From TrEMBL:
Stretches that traverse the bilayer: none
Taxonomic source organism: Actinomadura monticuli
Top-level taxon: Bacteria
Identification of the protein by name: Serine hydrolase domain-containing protein
Keywords noted in UniProt: Hydrolase
Enzyme Commission number: 3.1.1.103
EC main group: hydrolase
Limits of the Beta-lactamase-related domain: 15-345
Sample GO molecular function, one term: hydrolase activity
Length: 463
């Protein structure tokens, strides 16, 4: 089916109108469509400001933090090393990093790269320890993991794990003899011709760089006090990029690993493995219905997509690829109700450009559901988060407390969410700042341990 050309001016107007309605200070949108036998279509749009304190205008060449979309880039370099025969996904990471120590010695011996890339290692995922700005930051971070609790047994469930990607970055360093930052530049940024993609703050100074904006209890977005997470989190979430550069990376995966000039940067086998199902999820309602290597996997209107989102301090990014249409869409933002903007905009973009209906947002059922929530009451805890499910006046309430290094980076450390039941072990909680509903899933491991899944993290019940 031949699709009409992408109307960049139209999408620029829609971006500006929808962003204003969601109080998003600045945003950049990119849409890429491959045309077999012809030139690719690339449409770009930008609106708002990069920094409300300075009023610097957002342009299409502005650089935003793409957060955890970085994980797909890190995975791509890992898969290059697999292609080169330097690494096996299913060999113990300790074969490359014999110095690896974890609180569970058995996990330290058996954890593989596949566990890291699919978030199934059980290493507590939200360890944001700052190990300095030096080139040895990932080496030092790997040593820190010796004191990090095992969140769940190896391979027993799925829980979003930033720590695993910092560890994967250290493997890249050991096998390439380069820092993670240098390896990314040499193996991806340069071959793809990316001129506005960075990993370090001193590189951001060379570009029109966005700053994050945060809102306390739904207040007007204000500039965040912290610009970037520690360098030790680099492989999990520190890439900054323009919309066009992100789409150039996405194109690599739409073409099975080839650059626009036909050079192969990644084998077709590895590109396909990244998009194929590798792990099932306890919560299929928040990000995707399954996980690949790096990518999460979604089904919209019967069509298969892959993608990833990213969140840093007041910046959020959204990337979706529809391979059967040769279509990729990225949205980069710097505060406000960015999830609402994403939902509004992508609903229109995918309907008009691909005839795909996006699923309706999660919400409570129209008719109240009666469930016994007593067995879910208690305390659940992991690194950076204390979760308490308590009795409220009108039913169970989830109280979350941010702990550890993250507590100094967010405006509110304690939030309470009244829980509305959907079914026996599934509830929804409403974000007080945006009004969006989020899934809260309770479940047990095969060995009986109880877990709460919220914010795509599995948190064990401790009391």
């Amino acid at each position: 089916m031949t699709r009409p050309p992408i109307d960049a001016a139209h999408w620029g107007r829609r971006l500006a109108a929808l962003a204003a309605g969601r109080r998003v200070p600045g945003a950049s949108l990119g849409i890429l469509r491959l045309r077999p036998g012809g030139e690719d279509e690339l449409a770009e749009a930008a609106c708002g400001v990069l920094n409300r304190d300075t009023g610097v205008e957002t342009t299409t060449d502005s650089v935003f933090q793409i957060g955890s979309i970085t994980k797909v880039w890190t995975t791509t370099v890992v898969m290059q090393l697999v292609d080169e025969g330097l690494l096996s996904l299913d060999a113990p990471v300790a074969e490359v990093l014999p110095e690896l120590r974890l609180t569970d010695p058995d996990t330290a011996k058996r954890v593989t790269m596949r566990h890291l890339l699919t978030h199934t290692s059980g290493i507590d995922g939200d360890v944001f320890t700052d190990t300095g700005r030096g080139d040895d930051c990932l080496e030092k971070y790997t040593a820190v993991l010796a004191d990090v609790a095992q969140n769940h047994p190896l391979g027993a469930t799925w829980s979003y794990c930033n720590s695993g990607f910092s560890l994967a970055g250290r493997v890249i360093e050991r096998l390439t003899g380069r820092t993670w930052d240098a390896a990314m530049r040499e193996r991806l940024f340069a071959p793809l011709g990316l001129r506005r993609t960075i990993t370090l703050p001193e590189e951001a100074l060379l570009h029109r760089a966005a700053v994050g904006h945060v809102s306390a209890a739904g207040a007007e977005p204000a500039r965040a006090a912290v610009w970037q997470l520690p360098r030790s989190v680099g492989p999990a979430g520190l890439i900054g990029s323009s919309a066009a550069d992100v789409l150039a990376f996405a194109r690599l995966h739409l073409t099975g690993g080839r650059t626009p000039g036909g050079e192969r940067l990644l084998s077709g086998t590895s590109a396909a493995a990244m998009a194929a199902e590798q792990a099932q999820l306890p919560d299929t309602r928040t990000l995707g219905d399954s996980w690949g290597l790096g990518w999460f996997r979604l089904t919209w209107d019967g069509r298969r997509l892959i993608g990833h989102d990213g969140s840093t301090i007041g910046q959020n990014a959204y990337l979706r690829l529809l391979p059967d249409e040769g279509l990729a869409v990225v949205l980069l933002t710097n505060g406000g109700d960015t999830d609402g903007l994403y939902e509004d905009l992508y609903r229109e973009v995918f309907a008009e450009l691909a005839g795909v209906a996006t699923p309706p947002p999660l919400r409570p059922p129209d008719e109240p559901v009666a469930v016994d929530a007593e067995r879910h009451l208690g305390v659940y805890e992991r690194a950076s988060s204390l979760l308490e499910v308590v009795r409220g006046a009108d039913g169970p309430v989830l109280r979350t407390t941010v702990t550890g290094p993250l507590a100094s980076m967010v405006p509110d450390t304690v939030t309470e969410y009244p829980l509305a039941p959907v079914e026996e072990d599934l509830f929804v909680a409403r974000d007080p700042g945006t009004g969006h509903w989020m899934a809260v899933t309770f479940y047990s491991l095969p060995t009986g341990e109880r877990y709460l899944h919220f914010g795509v993290r599995a948190t064990p019940k401790v009391a």
